[in-house]
């Protein structure tokens, strides 16, 4: 009878150890899930900042391009007016 009690006690100890291992694994899993959640939130925030910065750079490049086009048009107009001034001046 004592041997049966010892066997049952041994089995209970093994079950308790397995349960303790399962609880530890569950706690580790919870920590990993929390870590992944924090990382995903950080990545989400970084992507928002990247998008905001990319849009700002895009807008600055557009303004720079428009300024260059305006300068080129102004130079062309000045050349045309200069040529017209010379042509009109020679006729008089």
TrEMBL record:
Pfam families: Synaptobrevin. Signal peptide: none annotated. Residues 9-60 form a coiled coil. It comes from the Eukaryota. GO terms for biological process: vesicle-mediated transport. Residues 4-64 form the V-SNARE coiled-coil homology domain. Keywords: Coiled coil, Membrane, Transmembrane, Transmembrane helix. The chain crosses the membrane at residues 68-88. GO terms for cellular component: membrane. The keyword Transcription does not apply. This is Synaptobrevin. The lineage of its organism: Eukaryota, Fungi, Fungi incertae sedis, Chytridiomycota, Chytridiomycota incertae sedis.
